[in-house]
Amino acid sequence: MAQFQRPTLCCCRKVLTVPSKSCEGGQGLGQCRLVDIASASNFHCFKLRHFHLDLRLNFAVKEITGWQVLELVAIQPGVQTLVLDTHPSLLIHSIDCKVPGTTGAQNISPSLTYRVDPFTDYGSSLNISLPAYVIRPHRAFQITVRYTTTDGPAIWWLDAELTCGQTRPLVFTQGHSVCNRSFFPCFDTPAVKSTYTATVRVPEGVTVLMSASRSAYSKQDRVFQFSMEYPVPAYLVALVAGDLQHVDIGPRSRVWAEPCILTCAVSKLGGSVERWLNVAEDLFGPYVWGRYDIVFLPPSFPIVAMENPCLTFIISSILESREFLLIDVIHEIAHGWFGNAVTNATWEEMWLSEGLATYAQRRITTEAYGEAFTCLETVFRLDALHRQMRLLGDNNPVSKLQVKFEPGINPSSLMNLFTYEKGFCFVSYLSQLCGNVKRFDSFLRAYIEQFKFSSVVAQDLLDFFLGFFPELKESCVAQREGLEFERWLNGCGPPLCEPDLSAGGVLTGPVQSLCDLWASEPPDPEAIANFNLSSWSTFQTVLFLDRLLDRSPLSHEVMGQLSRCYSAQLDEMNAEVRIRWLQIVVRNSFYPDLPRIRGFLHKHTSRMYTVPLYEDLCSGVMKCFAAEVFYQTQARLHPNLRRTLQQILFQTSALPTPTGSVPSLLHPTPSSPSPTPSDQLGPADPPTTGTIALRDVNVSA
Ligand SMILES: [Zn+2]
Do residues 22 and 28 make contact, with C-beta atoms less than 8 angstroms apart? Predict the structure, then answer.
């Protein structure tokens, strides 16, 4: 692959840049290396102070109509065009301009001329010509964009049948990574943060929630008002509207859900959320967002959970898997510090959010549930990382922490386990270097204090680390042979080192022993009977099943024995356990358990469970069975998921579909069919089997 040019910081210190050809010879910095946004050419010419959304939701025609007011200040003189990111699904009606504090001709809100140009398959470029009198450095002006948006990648309209209660429709948005340009025109980069307010008008009986620190409702006008007082990037603006009710579960937290699942959701979380927040505050300093609420969304939610500030979005399907629910919520809480307060400035360094949040999540679970539990969960995830690595090969560029995007790449498509787990290992290594986990906690507290509400690049973190521990800087830890920081960031392959997880041995030991017993020829039923799966935790059981899956294909005799031993018992367990057993069934073509697959797919309609199973069914000999189940259940699937499954079913190759996204990482997978991985990488990069590998990862935490 093309050699990666080491990025440097733009003058605003927020943006990665590389010298362009014309700049060779030290003529200065070239264009910002933000190939995923149309606004890259000029967003740093303006300061976005604030924006306001005034929206009306129309469920009947699945439209959001209204206007957006952007409050901007020109930083550089002579800029005549404002470029924003937008999307073909967003129809612009008019654009006006106003300069507050001016009178007469200068304040008549003239209509501005604008042009929408194609940019990528996930967005367009909105070019607004600014009147000359606006372009005065450091003077504020307002741009008002009137628009209608329908069903772009950010906006998910659910008919009533697709909700949990099946009585009223629901709509939610999902901005990560580059989808919100179809929700409102914006600088769709994590490098730009601003406060926002919103007014949302809805039909009677609909409740609206947003990722905002304050909200109010006027029953008479059926208008919801929101204010986010802290600066956030565009991707963290989120909205959900439907038949939602709440129960307070702590002094700053409430659970929101459709009425039919609210009691269950509240009972599963109970008083835990405030406890987790308190542990996190002890470790990383004050929670800066005020509220921490959670909204449970129907199974059509395309990912497991999303860390929208003040309001975590989470899929209701996870409710039955207690330990996964716990890990997912704690992970989203950790984002309150890592990812939301301090954000990666570019999507090429997503590990700054996910790797640090994963580390913080594990610090919280260590304090709240002990080291053994945390190590077990880590072993389970690192197992998955190594599985992915085996499939990708050691030199695959997606295994880098600093991924290089080429134009046209959708950043969401390159989210993978390396973002989380290799990032986690690097952060653990930094913690190890300073010799004491508590000292590293204090470093993280200082890091948050230093950078909160801003966006950073890896160099900011590492410079601050070496400044915080001058003795480490003096001993040149950044250049330690084989463990160079540069190699961590830009090297392909597995983590350069992994943390000591031996404290998990008490929980992982029995799992490995049972796996070994099943691997012996022939398996010894008496020895196996000494292990009782029902006394195990979910993470132990899924680790056991994942390791069995790694040993597939298994002989028909062993499959028969496994089925007699476990099948009925596993069928009573949660979906995270069941899907793993069913994948073993499919990959070993074990027909006696086919009815269990049918039962599972009739019950579970979320992407995180259906896509991996359909991919397995279709890449083996059970494609006809998959088609039959699909026709029986398709009416209850979201159109996007239906399309994905159709593509899986009707592909001619036996290979897994390129549209099958990561089954269920902690976070966003593309909300609509995405390009194949080989399209996503640049021409200089070798083709990758990324999708095949990602689907095999089998992780849903
Ligand atoms: Zn995350």
Answer: no
Cα–Cα distance measured from residue 531 to residue 513, given in angstroms and rounded to the nearest whole number: 9
Which pLDDT value is given to residue 106?
Answer: 57
How does the average pLDDT of the chain come out, rounded? 87
Three-state secondary structure call for residue 249: strand
pLDDT > 50? residue 101: yes
Strand partners, 311: 293
* Partner residues linked to 296 by β-bridges: 314
Backbone phi, psi, residue 206, to 5°:
-100, 130
The residue from 235, 292, 359, 420 that is catalytic is: 420
Are 607 and 580 contacting, i.e. CB atoms less than 8 angstroms apart?
no
Three-state DSSP state, 313: strand
The annotation status of 335 as a binding-site residue, yes or no, is yes
Active site residue 420: yes
C-alpha dihedral over 570, 573, 579, 585, to 10 degrees?
10
* Token reading at 334: 């950790």
pLDDT-derived band at 127, boundaries 50, 70, 90: very high
- Can you tell me the distance from the alpha carbon of 420 to that of 699, in angstroms, rounded to the nearest whole number? 12
pTM over 0.85: yes
- Whether the predicted pLDDT of 484 surpasses 60: yes
pLDDT of residue 203: 94
Give the closest residue to 332 by CA, choosing from 351, 304, 352.
304
Distance from residue 334's CA to the centre of ligand 1 (Å): 8
How many alpha carbons lie under 13 Å from residue 17 in its C-beta half-sphere?
Answer: 19
- Given a contact cutoff of 8 angstroms between Cβ atoms, the answer to whether 339 and 307 are in contact is yes
Residue-wise pLDDT tens digits, 141-162? 999 999 999 989 999 999 999 9
Q: How far lies 644's CA from each of 284, 332, 407, 632, 673, in Å?
A: 40, 27, 24, 16, 7
Distance from the alpha carbon of residue 208 to the mean position of ligand 1, in angstroms: 24
User: What would the two tokens of residue 434 be?
Assistant: 């300073």
AA identity, residue 371: E
pLDDT of residue 109: 63
Q: How many CB atoms lie within 10 A of CB 67?
A: 17
If you measure from the C-alpha of residue 291 to the centroid of ligand 1, how many angstroms do you get, rounded to a whole number? 19
DSSP label at residue 422 = I
- What is the percent of the chain with per-residue pLDDT over 90, rounded to a whole number? 78
Has 331 been labeled as part of a binding site? yes
> Which residues contact residue 6 at a Cβ distance below 8 angstroms, ignoring those fewer than 6 apart?
490
For 56, what's the count of Cα atoms within 13 Å in the CB-facing half-sphere? Answer: 10
Q: How far is the CA of 469 from the centre of ligand 1 (A)?
A: 27
350 C-alpha to center of ligand 1: Å? 10
Q: Residue 267, class by beta-carbon neighbours within 10 Å (0-12 exposed, 13-18 middle, 19+ buried)?
A: exposed
In the predicted structure, residue 599 carries a pLDDT above the cut 80? yes
Identify the active-site residue in 307, 332, 421, 498: 332
Would you state the structure tokens that stand for residue 220, as one six-digit string? 């008479």
* Ligand 1 centre distance from Cα of residue 361 (Å): 9
CA of 331 to the centre of ligand 1 (A): 6
The answer on pLDDT for 24 being more than 70 is no
Please write the tens of the pLDDT for every residue from 449-481: 999 999 999 999 999 999 999 999 999 999 999
Q: Ligand 1 centre from 206 Cα, in Å?
A: 29
Write down the residue that tokens 């030991």 correspond to: 509
Q: Any idea how long the chain is?
A: 701
| Cβ contact 209:306 at 8 Å | no
Q: Is 246 part of any known ligand binding site?
A: no
